[in-house]
Structure formats: structure tokens, C-alpha cells
Amino acid sequence: MVEKYSLTDRVAIVTGALGLIGRNHCQALAEAGAKVVVADLNEEAAKSFASDLGDTHFGIGLDVTDEATVKQVRDRILERYGRIDVLVNNAALNEAVENPAMALELTAFENFPVAQFRASLEVNVTGVFLCAQVFGSVMAQQGKGSIINVASTYGLVGPDQRIYRNEAGEQTFYKTAAYPATKGAVVNFTRFLAAYWGQKGVRVNTLSPGGVENGQSEYFISNYSAKTVLGRMAQPDEYQGAVVFLASDASAYMSGANLVVDGGWTAI
């Protein structure tokens, strides 16, 4: 069984690789034997992190919404390695409000800026589409590959706005419509692509992670944890096994599926 999880000599690109979960995706794939392309907007930081992973990996700047740049990255990968075996579509925009005092007002659905909604669509949906098209086409030509589209539990269920209330019961902000709408689109795009490229040997699956503990307020961690059957938020490295599983031959008969790793959030 250990051999089925091996990614030795396979080439994997991770988009949004410098994020909290993205870094862990890269580390897991590298430890499984893959040659990892660390792709993120910040090219210098991507190169530095790739260097930390080892000599067989490399970092590169990537804007997932820019078709020309995505194609340039594809060409660089093929020039260096000659193939692409795994794509982890991890890059995403999760809206943030620069002024905390305005968070409640700006995140309310009635006030949420359409420009910000469109920006989320561009990164979270168009970016996933574009990377899958450009990098996945190489896999289809090879006759083998694995695409992992990272969605979210919020692609499956609506946000429970109560978890964003503080100890006094006051709403601090709202989870907006942008993230759930775009992540829901990713889940169904996965199904389309799995059906489309199944005969080409390209497997396409979704990974839907739950929330990761990362310095949030105590009230939020408590509220979130109470919604899961395991009674806690995830640690950043707890999606590593799922990524390696979906990338490797351990999941060889799995395509079009949504692997939900959420501590039981969507179970109740």
C-alpha cells in the first residue's frame, strides 16, 4: 500500500502555494516524492519556499487569472521537467475587510460591493477553470494526471452566521455570498471536468476542507468547534494526507468525487 501513495518522479504544481494550507500541500507532495512547483503571486517568496523544500523543486510567480502568465508557467514546467502530473488548484480569494470598524456594514449582503463579488469569481472560479484548462490539457495529452480542486465546506452548506457573534452575542461581521457561491461552483466544475476528461486518463476531484485554527479570536474558535462532531478546528497539516491520497494511485478509481475533510461539520 505504501507504494500506492508514492509520488516519486511526478511533477505537481500547487497554486496559491504560500497560503497556510498551500504550504502544507507543497510539503506533503514533496515528502511523498513529487517535484513540486510552488506557484504564487509573490515569485521571490515562492522561490524561497521551494528552496526550503529541496533542490528538485522550484518556485514561480503565477496570477491564476492571467491566461498568458498561466501558459508561460506551463511552458517553464515542461521545459524543466517535461511533464505535469498533478495540479492542486488551491489559489482563492477569501474576502477581507481592511477597516475592522466597517466589517459588519460591508459584509452584510445588502451592502456587499459587487466589485468584490466579481473579484472573487475571477480568482475562485475563472482561475480554477484557466489552470485546469492549461495544465490539465498537458495531462490529457499524456494520458494520465490528477487535478485536485480545493473547495470548502461552504461550497456544500450555507454559512452559519451565528458563529461570527462575539461573547456578548453581537454580530462582528458576516460571511459573504462570494466565498460560498464560488466554492459551490468549484464542486460542480470538478464533476464536469471529471466526466469530460475521464477517457483521457485525467482524474479530477474536489477537496473540501473545513476551517483551520490560525490565531482567530477565542469566541470564534469556540463557536466553530461546537459545530463539528470532533469538537475542534483543523490544524494546518491535517489536509496533507488527503492531498497525497488524491494525487497518488491510492485513489486511482476515484474521479468526480468530493472528499470532505471537515471534522464532521457537514455531518450534522
**How would you classify the helix and strand content by structural class?**
alpha/beta
Number of strands: 7
Q: Quote the beta fraction.
A: 5-15%
- Which residue ranges are poorly predicted, with pLDDT under 50 across at least 5 consecutive positions? none
Q: Termini separation (Å)?
A: 32 Å
Mean pLDDT: 96
Task: Present the secondary structure layout.
Elements: E1 11-15, H1 20-31, E2 35-40, H2 43-53, E3 58-61, H3 67-81, E4 86-89, H4 103-107, H5 114-142, E5 145-150, H6 178-197, E6 202-209, H7 218-225, H8 240-247, E7 258-261
Helix pairs in contact: 1-8, 3-5, 5-6
Overview of this protein structure:
With 268 residues, the protein is of the alpha/beta class. It has a single domain (2-267), classed as NAD(P)-binding Rossmann-like Domain (Rossmann fold). The chain is built from eight helices and seven strands. Strands 3-2-1-4-5-6-7 form a seven-stranded parallel sheet, with helices on both faces. Strand 2, helix 2 (43-53) and strand 3 form a beta-alpha-beta unit. Helix 3 packs parallel to helix 5.
